[in-house]
Write a structure and sequence with these properties.
There is one protein chain. The chain has 122 residues and is mainly beta. The chain has one helix and nine strands; from the N terminus they run E-E-H-E-E-E-E-E-E-E. The strands form two sheets. Strands 1, 3, 4, 7, 8 and 9 form a six-stranded mixed sheet that branches. The two termini are 28 Å apart.
Length: 122
């Protein structure tokens, strides 16, 4: 997944849908999320250093008008202006910490975050 945000920006919020892959029981996984501390980290691809290390993230349930629609869950992180103060290419990850251990959000592909130059005067 690729995510783009402007340098110095705080929006948009980074959201990733929790994928129902048929392998993991979604009920167990949602219990894990609800009983976890959720953190977000972002690593500079060029230097290998952390730009963000274990800052608090969260999760939400998407509300549908149709009561028969299947429930969707998302994990999210809201950037601060200091998080996006430097242009570059980064790799992000969500980490769940529970009483039983530490889990990294299972995703099908890497989360790539590009912080680009803003052409709007603030």
């Amino acid at each position: 997944m690729e995510f783009f945000i402007n340098k110095g920006a705080t929006l948009p919020v980074l959201k990733m849908q929790v994928v129902k892959d048929g392998i993991a029981d979604i009920t167990e996984f949602m219990s894990l999320i609800e009983n976890s501390l959720i953190y977000f980290s972002m690593i500079d691809v060029k230097t290998g250093g952390y730009k963000i290390l274990n800052k608090k993230g969260g999760f939400v349930e998407k509300t549908f008008i149709d009561p028969n629609a299947e429930t969707e869950y998302y994990v999210y992180y809201k950037f601060t202006s200091s998080d996006t103060s430097r242009e570059g290419l980064y790799e992000g990850e969500f980490v769940f910490i529970t009483d039983t251990g530490t889990y990294i959000l299972p995703i099908r592909e890497k989360l790539t975050i590009k912080i680009g130059n803003s052409y709007v005067s603030i």
